[in-house]
Amino acid sequence: MLSLLKQRAESSGNPLWGLGGPHDVPTYDQSPYASSFFKDGGSWESSYGDFFLSWYSAQLIAHGDSLLSLASSTFGDTGVSIYGKIPLMHAWYGTRSRPSELTAGFYNTANRDGYEQVADMFAKNSCKIILPGMDLSDANQPNETHSSPELLLAQTMTTFRNQGVKVSGQNSSEFGVPGGFEQMKKNLSGDNVLDLFSYQRMGAYFFSPEHFPSFTELVRSLNQPKLHLDDLPTEEEEGAESAVMSQESSVSMQAA
């Protein structure tokens, strides 16, 4: 990978930029602001920073494009829907540099939409996108990380939809988060029409008394397009209670 960086730097007329990565970044276990790179006015805003972050992001997008292209060419004529998933790197989203996203390869800052090229990649390969974090709310994030899963989710959903990519959703925590069911209901209602929603994960906790009633309430609160034959009421049940079915929603749900 360093050889590719060297080639890119030489072609840009700045061969010294290809000798390695940024020298003023924090180590893996340090705060993003332990060094100067991610600070306001830091190297990420310099010509070198733009060069490196653009190159780094392009490498990961090229890798993703090759995988989606292979999947599309393999399954394109079979009627199988192809999905790809990206992480919701919401920590530090409230800062200008957004270090979590930059280090993950998403060149997304307060001045730049780093998901447009990713959305183009999905659209080019006729692939749908899975966005996790549908259960995460800003109010339940630690203040010190300047996290905003809600704003990041809104940005990515808008960007992908603008490129004609169908968006599916998923929760992030298998064991629940504070306000998770309320947040999922919010993200699955109103104008937030999803192609599919996957709830994870089925297991002992899923069926526990602490969890299953809340999950059941969530499902019952959503408009379902149709019921499976096994879920239709019997004649006796119809006499006792009418089954109401809505044809308005296009969201389907599955448990992973």
TrEMBL record:
Annotated stretches, region: Disordered: 233-256
The protein's Enzyme Commission number: 3.2.1.2
Organism: Trifolium subterraneum (Subterranean clover)
Swiss-Prot/TrEMBL catalytic activity: Hydrolysis of (1->4)-alpha-D-glucosidic linkages in polysaccharides so as to remove successive maltose units from the non-reducing ends of the chains
Pfam families: Glyco_hydro_14 (PF01373)
Family listed: Belongs to the glycosyl hydrolase 14 family.
UniProt biased composition (Polar residues): 244-256
Keywords: Carbohydrate metabolism, Glycosidase, Hydrolase, Polysaccharide degradation
Name of the molecule in the record: Beta-amylase
GO biological process, one term: polysaccharide catabolic process
A GO molecular-function descriptor: beta-amylase activity
